[in-house]
From TrEMBL:
Residues 365-384, 395-419 are annotated as: Disordered. Its cofactor is pyridoxal 5'-phosphate. The keyword GTP-binding does not apply. SUPFAM superfamilies: PLP-dependent transferases. It catalyses: 4-aminobutanoate + 2-oxoglutarate = succinate semialdehyde + L-glutamate. Residues 400-419 have a biased composition (Basic and acidic residues). Pfam families: Aminotran_3. This is Aspartate aminotransferase family protein. It comes from Klebsiella pneumoniae. It comes from the Bacteria. Belongs to the class-III pyridoxal-phosphate-dependent aminotransferase family. InterPro entries: Aminotrans_3, Aminotrans_3_PPA_site, Class-III_PLP-dep_AT, PyrdxlP-dep_Trfase, PyrdxlP-dep_Trfase_major, PyrdxlP-dep_Trfase_small. Keywords: Aminotransferase, Pyridoxal phosphate, Transferase. One of its GO terms (molecular function) is pyridoxal phosphate binding.
Length: 419
């Protein structure tokens, strides 16, 4: 029988160490919100493949759509022999992405590809080369998206200089003392000291930061950012790779901001676990690149497109992208817990995209890395068991949604049993 320890040893010999692994566990099968490892142990999946499984593992409707497509064709490359699933999904995204204007959509495979193409399109449309990203941003692991990402370790440490003409503005975050005014002022400082606005092709922002800590920009800030871009002819790119696909209570977080981006990127849960990403933008902007300048061998694979079309067909009925009343949100329940547990320094997020930040003895200047980090804490460092039980029992959904009937009602019992 395989063991996790034996497979970790094999992994060490076969896989580069740069491919990190949070848990020393190897999954063998999964269903709904549960995963079983190679030793037969059962787990609740609070990771969801890094925000990819809003539908849970192997949702029957996703599986049925994929099986049906596999009987027809698996790959041709859309640029060589086009196929209807790609076209139909682009039509759907043109309808669903925020913005009261004509749109076109490009399909690719990964979120990093989507961001790369979004900036490439913005540069072609404006004839400019510069881009502004924000502190705390995460936009991908490819060479250019590493320049946009606002964190060196572990993503680009030791790799030397990244591509230039990328400038860093402050992301608005009241918890860390950055107001909307200060964030806007930081962009004006870039215009004054680093690059004239006439040299900036795009400002790219996550309406809710993912890897940066689930900080949500305010609608007021996004509206000011939209006005600033309009004033200077700059493309506003909304990176909704993490915040899209219904995680925030609406299909896209930008729906709650009162403005639309010129270009929107999406990926993650868009295809229920299959690799698919894309870029949707103003039609005239998306047409800025000549034929042959966009695409990819596997971009918009028909199997992934079939999964995404089915995802949109049934998921609009799921609670995760219907805005619940304020008293019913996961945040509201967790805030109630925080009142009795000073270790919880902050609870924040939109919809089901939530962060719980732990601090030592309630001191917000001392983040509790031991209890919140990836490494295993020593026994004396473990957080209060009552706190863990309360958080788990009041969380609305695990990272991978359970699609069974009655799953919401059974959630608390599942948590108690598996704890």
């Amino acid at each position: 029988m395989n063991s996790n320890r034996a497979m970790m040893a094999r992994r060490s010999d076969a896989v580069p160490r740069g491919v990190g692994q949070i848990h020393p566990i190897f999954a063998e099968r999964a269903e709904n919100c549960r995963v079983w490892d190679v030793e037969g142990r059962e787990y609740l999946d609070f990771a969801g493949g890094i925000a990819v499984l809003n539908t849970g593992h192997l949702h029957p409707q996703i599986v049925a759509a994929v099986e049906d497509q596999l009987k027809k064709l698996s790959h041709t490359c859309f640029q060589v022999l086009a196929y209807e699933p790609y076209l139909a999904l682009c039509e759907k995204m043109n309808q669903k992405v925020p913005g009261d204007f004509a749109k076109k959509t490009l399909l690719v495979t990964t979120g990093s590809e989507a961001v790369e193409n979004a900036v490439k399109i913005a540069r072609a449309a404006t004839g400019r080369s510069g881009a502004i990203a924000f502190t705390g941003a995460y936009h991908g692991r490819t060479h250019y998206t590493l320049s946009l990402t606002g964190k060196v370790n572990p993503y680009s440490a030791g790799m030397g200089l990244m591509p230039g003409h990328v400038y860093r503005a402050l992301y608005p975050c009241a918890l860390h003392g950055v107001s909307d005014d200060e964030a806007i002022a930081s962009i004006h400082r870039i215009f004054k000291n680093d690059a004239a606005p006439e040299d900036i092709a795009a400002i790219i922002i996550e309406p809710v930061q993912g890897e940066g800590g689930f900080y949500a920009a305010s609608p007021a800030f996004m509206q000011r950012l939209r006005a600033l871009c309009d004033e200077h002819g700059i493309m506003l790119i909304a990176d909704e790779v993490q915040s899209g696909a219904g995680r925030t209570g609406t299909l896209f977080a930008m729906e709650q901001m009162g403005v639309a981006a010129d270009i929107t990127t999406f990926a993650k849960s868009i295809a229920g676990g299959f690799p698919l990403a894309g870029v949707t933008g103003r039609a005239e902007v998306m047409d800025a690149i000549a034929p042959g300048g966009l695409g990819g061998t596997y971009a918009g694979n028909p199997i992934a497109c079939a999964a995404a079309r089915r995802y949109y067909r049934f998921s609009s009925r799921r609670i995760c992208w219907k805005k619940p009343t304020s008293s019913a949100t996961p945040c509201a329940g967790l805030l109630a817990i925080a009142e009795d547990h000073p270790e919880i320094g902050d609870v924040r997020g939109l919809g089901a995209m939530i962060a719980i930040e732990l601090f030592e003895e309630g001191d917000r200047s001392r983040p509790n890395a031991a209890d919140g980090g990836y490494r295993r804490p020593r026994p004396r460092q473990r957080p209060d068991p009552a706190l863990l039980r309360a958080v788990l029992q009041r969380a609305a959904h695990p990272g991978a949604a359970d699609h069974r009937r009655g799953a919401d009602r059974a959630g608390a019992q599942d948590h108690r049993r598996l704890l």
